[in-house]
Amino acid sequence: MKKFFKIFWVFIIGCLAGYILEVTWHFILTRGFQTRQGLIYGPFAPVYGLGTLAFYLVLPKIKNIFNIFWVSALLGGITEYLCSYFQEKLFGTISWDYSGLFMNLDGRTSITYCILWGILGIIFVKFIYPYIEKLFNKMNMTVITKFVTAFAVVFMVFNISISSLAARRQYERREHIAPENEIDEFLDEHYPDEFMNKVYANKIEK
């Protein structure tokens, strides 16, 4: 239970931090605000959640800073590539395209962003991981803690599920596939293209 608790909340922390990082970076580049969320409900960027979780599970075992860097770069690059690949195959969209960057891999990741992932990995191990562990060690698995975690898990399962279904249904609408059941009709009514395009303002149709 304690291990699952840590894994889940590390994922959530990564999702939230990634959203803040993406919004801030976009603002610096354009001087404008754009939502960069990866799920319909809430400021969550799952690709960063997965990347942070990979860091948490792998990096603390590595002591040499150079090894931390290249392992982080590899983990981040693989996470970016796989998330982009499955997003395109399942939903017909991508959320980033690095085709114009030096040494990119199918536009899904690049040497530049792998280097950034490597730097983030060092920052995570040296500064963030000790703080997270200290925080977790201070927390007791009380009834309230368990209840909040259980509620958050149910919410995230729902959030990920409805976001995936709505994104898949939008892809089907683009392919002129008529609704086949009540679920499709529900998605068409409550998550139309106008709503989805507003939520995922940075997506690119493929």
Question: Overview of this structure, please?
Answer:
The chain is mainly alpha-helical. It has one domain. The chain is 70% helix and 4% strand. Strands 1-4 form a two-stranded antiparallel sheet. The chain has a two-stranded antiparallel sheet with strand order 2-3. Strand 2 (104-105) and strand 3 form a beta hairpin. Helix 1 (2-30) crosses helix 2.
What's the arrangement of secondary structure elements?
Blueprint: H1 2-30, H2 46-58, H3 65-91, E1 93-94, E2 104-105, E3 109-110, H4 111-138, H5 143-174, H6 182-190, H7 193-199, E4 204-205
Helix pairs in contact: 1-2, 2-3, 3-4
Provide a quick synopsis of the model:
It is built from 7 helices and 4 strands. With 206 residues, it is mainly alpha-helical. The chain has one domain.
Give the strand line-up of the largest sheet. 1-4
Low-confidence stretches: none
Average pLDDT confidence is 94
Tell me the β content: under 5%
**Gap from first CA to last CA:** 41 Å
Secondary-structure-derived class: mainly alpha
Computed over alpha carbons, the radius of gyration is: 18 Å
| Order of H and E elements | HHHEEEHHHHE
Question: Percent of residues in helical segments?
Answer: over 70%
Q: What's the tally of helices?
A: 7
How many structurally independent domains?
A: 1
Number of strands: 4
